[in-house]
């Protein structure tokens, strides 16, 4: 039985998942929130992006279940001896990938889907020194003659992977049609409605996104059974494995940093807009001074002080993973506590308008306390700004982590992140021949994560912002809810 390890960011991530589930439960019980989120659910790009984000979240959560494997008992150990655990901490994702080519390092660089090393070395062949590209330890090791067998073996594994992905696509489609058949009048009618896009929710777009994910995953799994799909880096580690491990770091940076900036932003923003006067002046002075300091320099100073504390207290960490995780957690807190001024300004401006409305003035006239007015009347009416800012800040923080790691003040060097991959590719692009696959892999994964987060955030902003354009139902939905179509004369007017 392994020994489970609970890191700071693991606890924070699972608490965040529990909070999201609780919010979903509350939203289902609230007609207003249910109607607002229904607008988001009818947006095809947003829901397709949600499918991609869900895939990233699943990978990140699997990488957040940490444990120390139990080692076999030492020779001659007593029967009742306590179990011995490995010093290295692993995750559930590591356990799933254990034994594959992804976890078997090479000596140094190798190209994607290669069977030989990228650089030449001197080898002894038949007692004679010969300078050639040596065979890889794991990638293509099953081939007897890579020059003639590589292409056929790659195509065969790719075909098997695509076939497995196609089976997953068909199974997902059958499950979707089976679930929806109760509401759409049978399997045949449901299949026709989903295929033609006549459903209220964009199930066709979501299923097509799911199909693309399954086919890509199947192809990668099929190729990864014998090759390094995206090559290896300078130390011989698989680039695809590093990209998968970097997803958790990006999710932690984007989510925990956003949550860390909410308390000061909401508290100071509501207080400044409601009380005005000296309270407003003091809060404005604080965040004006904070924004006057260059952000990178402020984060660098805080990160260096944090690193000094970690280095002077090595007894607080039993493993290197705990040390790296604490640095990541404190980095999220630093970014959150130094980046709340933008949201604070928005909430202050909105609160200045809300405090002059009739229901707030009536509550003050009846002697309701200031705390109760801010909690019951002001906070619910600014939550759309908070929610919009949260989803918009996520993608920006993922990119910001890449910048910080590139400057050397980001996550621990032993922790995988997209910024570390980009920083490692800084000198690789100037090589001759150029090592391009490390940077390209980080770019593809970051593009998919940030683009899907931005598309989903745009739909949330449009649904929750009262100043955004109102939702107009499509033709099929108009027929479903009985909205009469406009005549040609009315349309012309």
Quick overview of this protein structure:
The chain has 493 residues and is mainly alpha-helical.
Task: Walk me through what this model shows.
By secondary structure, the chain is mostly helical. The chain has 18 helices and seven strands.
Looking at the structure, what is the overall shape? globular
DSSP strand content: under 5%
CATH C-level class of the domain at 242-467 is Mainly Alpha
What strand order characterises the main sheet? 1-2-5
Instruction: Give the tally of β-strands.
Output: 7
- What is the annotated CATH architecture of the domain at 242-467? Orthogonal Bundle
**Global structural class:** mainly alpha
Order of helical and strand elements = EHHHEEEEHEEHHHHHHHHHHHHHH
Integer-rounded radius of gyration: 27 Å
CATH superfamily of the domain at 242-467: MetI-like
Taking all residues together, what is the mean pLDDT? 82
Which labels suit this protein?
disordered C terminus, two-stranded antiparallel ribbon, MetI-like fold, 3-stranded antiparallel β-sheet, mainly alpha, globular
What's the arrangement of secondary structure elements?
Elements (H helix, E strand, L loop, with lengths): L2 E3 L2 H22 L1 H11 L2 H19 L3 E3 L1 E2 L12 E2 L4 E2 H6 L23 E5 L2 E5 L13 H39 L2 H10 L6 H22 L14 H37 L1 H16 L2 H18 L7 H18 L3 H14 L3 H8 L4 H38 L10 H7 L12 H28 L10 H7 L6 H5 L1
Antiparallel strand pairs: 1-2, 2-5, 3-4, 6-7
